[in-house]
Automatic annotation (TrEMBL):
A GO cellular component entry from the record: cell surface
Species annotation: Dicaeum eximium
Boundaries of every VWFD domain copy: 232-293
Cross-referenced InterPro entries: Dev_Signal_Modulators, Ig_VWDE, VWF_type-D
Name of the featured protein: VWDE protein
One term of GO molecular function: signaling receptor binding
Keyword Magnesium: no
Amino acid sequence: LALHPVITPELVQGRVHLKCSYSPPSPAPPVQYRVLWSRLSSPGKREQLHEETTPRPFSYAELDGANLRLGDTVFCTVTAFRRGTPEQQSLPEDSKGFYAGIKFLPESLEIAEDGKEHILTVLSTVPIACPGQEDSCKITLQLSTEDLGKSSRVPGPPDIALSACQVDLLPEPCSGGRCAAATVTVTAVTDFAQDGRRVSRVSARPAAPRGLLWRAHTPRDVKVTVRDLPTGNCYSFTDPHIITFDGWRYDSHKIGTFLLCRSESRAFEVHVRQRDCGGRRSATACNCGVAAR
């Protein structure tokens, strides 16, 4: 028999359950199903949770926060047999592993110090339930970043920036592996330091979680690798000598406020103010102020 067991999340009387569904043979003879629920305890190893025998083409397991918790990767294994002849069984069939909880997509990022924004999605694969509080039902996640640097060094300043410090996961109908989702953008900090490839991570922690199920859940961190790009420098110094990004040199002895640099691709510009500092003897100007955006 080809039973094709599949795990999907479902709310049952306001409580989060996982449903293992399988395809009965057609036309269906009087068949019983033995369903074994298990979870991944360590890479390549499974821990059995419970087993049941049922005539129905589905089986439920509740995420109760004790036996089955958020963060578990869950499997159901189904075997079929005819009533009265339990020794004659079909081959057991495994479902794909179902990760129950909150996760980031993508699970890792590699970005460059080029100012580009990268979308990071935070989603829950199970329904968010708040019995009696449907109008204000949500899970708030506090987001943080940490520069892991290199093992032999003290971590430096942040290497990545997020567009928000927290996100709200609001309940929505489960579809395509998500029951709630929010997005933030991640950008590499342009620090002008030639520090090679540095690794940071993005973490999420439930803020004032509702109920035991969510309180003990910590989503997996996202690893973000930041790659250096060559940086350019320009200068204005002493009376003033100018060196442009491409190395062109000239002097500017004019008095007033001038546009020193402006980007055509982003909101970045530098203004410089020059005052008379040569007096009557020479027409010389000196930098006396700078404004940068």
